[in-house]
Specification:
Blueprint lengths: L26 E3 L10 H11 L11 H11 L6 E4 L1 H13 L4 E4 L5 H8 L4 E4 L18 E5 L11 H9 L6 E4 L20 E6 L12 E5 L1 H14 L6 H11 L2 H24 L2 E3 L6 E6 L4 H10 L2 E3 L10 E5 L3 H14 L3
Parallel strand pairs: 1-11, 3-4, 3-5, 5-6, 6-7
Antiparallel strand pairs: 2-8, 7-8, 9-10, 10-12
This protein binds pyridoxal-5'-phosphate.
Amino acid sequence: MSRFFSSKYKSLEPYTPGEQPQNMKYIKLNTNESPFPPSERAVSAMYKAARTLNLYPDPQCRELTCAVAANLGVEPDEVLMTNGSDEILNFAFMAFGERGAAFPDITYGFYTVFSVINSVEYEEIPLKSDFTVNTLDYAGLNKAIFIANPNAPTGIALPTEDIEKILQSNPDGVVVVDEAYVDFGNESCVKLTGKYDNLLVTRTFSKSRSMAGARLGFGVGCKELIADLNKIKYSTNPYNINKMTMAAGIGTMADEEYTLKNCAEIIKNREYTANELKKLGFLLTPSAANFVFAKHSSVGGEKIYSVLKNNGVLVRHFDKKEISEYNRITIGTREQMDKMLDILRKELSL
Ligand SMILES: *Cc1c(COP(=O)(O)O)cnc(C)c1O
């Protein structure tokens, strides 16, 4: 640390991204990326956009915003496109965190980081022992509430009725539903944005749309919430979506069939992998995401992580006590899953 660093950031503990090894070729099942390449329409649109990189991108991101809004059945002024969904989450902490924030104690690790960097006081609410949310714990908080649905890293989905209970019992706080994984089989809350002025839904192109490297996400909410978030955007980075990403996003939205096909394949592979892991003595949480969260009945979580890593497969292990026996395994192609399962069978003599 230099002696010039602002004291308010001294206690900041940055988010630790999953390993992105550049030296060795691993089967990467550790950051919930898609195993499928982006849509060809995204790639060709991006090439074309690259030829006009001398010009700034459209700060309103009009064409892409309209495509996303049409896909969701909402108005363009109810959508804000951002640089990954991490950016809209950060904007939400900035815009709506004045009275504090609350979120489950086991969830996406970025929520605590966004709280600290924006000086938002936060409360981590323990999940039940089966890792599910008790909606009563959130009643009457009237803070900004962040619920990843399905949750990370457990994959467990909270029913829409339960989200509604939280919305209704917190009329004076914004409830942010982080739907990064919703396309892998969960019901979306977007349809509730017309009914609740305190609901913001966030989504990403990183997982189901194979665009993690492009950085594209968005938020959906009533137009007043979106106007607030736009104020933050235009005060930090009006050109938050670069031209190539914007073009790739438009191409992807025009190829919905491809996205749906890939999601169906991931869901199929998830059910297959879950079944095979159970046969090997693993216990799994019920996942509605593109990963499974698994612990073995006799072999420790760290051991499983290192056996896989030593054999060229990266999964995500968290040190946090309550979940240290688990590993989060991204669902890839059937071939990748079979390789991972073979290693476990062989190396652990299961
Ligand atoms: C991956 C993920 C995000 C971030 O996605 P980006 O759009 O790549 O920034 C947000 N929330 C959760 C729960 C995630 O797992």
